[in-house]
Amino acid sequence: MNIREIEALNLPVSNLQASLRFYHEVFDLPILELADDVKAARLAKQLLIFSPQEVVNPIEFSVVAKDSVAALESHLANYGVDIKQPAHTVKVMGRDATAIVVADLDDNLITINTYAQKG
């Protein structure tokens, strides 16, 4: 077997329209309509598929942002995003990153990592 990448993640959401608005406005993700009226957000080559359901077990995932930490903090504050862990230093695959952990409307946790620019 030769697996190359993750194609899609299923994100449990209790209110589809509110979640679509949150991910589009807060993370500036394009929203797509797939077959059978399924909604998804595109993150590079991966899809984040919105799965309407009662959210019993929220998930956790991480994303990479190109913005400065100050810009991220300001943007999150402007949207009133629930910050679970403020900016802190972490190691990700041997690299130093600054991480901010936020929760979406269903308490799914998103770690936003940003890396120092090279050069």
UniProtKB/TrEMBL annotation:
PROSITE patterns per UniProt: VOC (PS51819)
VOC domain location, by residue?
5-115
What Gene3D superfamilies would the database entry show? 2,3-Dihydroxybiphenyl 1,2-Dioxygenase, domain 1 (3.10.180.10)
Q: Which SUPFAM superfamilies match?
A: Glyoxalase/Bleomycin resistance protein/Dihydroxybiphenyl dioxygenase
Instruction: Check the record and name the InterPro entries matching this protein.
Output: Glyas_Bleomycin-R_OHBP_Dase, Glyas_Fos-R_dOase_dom, VOC_core
Q: What is this protein called?
A: VOC domain-containing protein
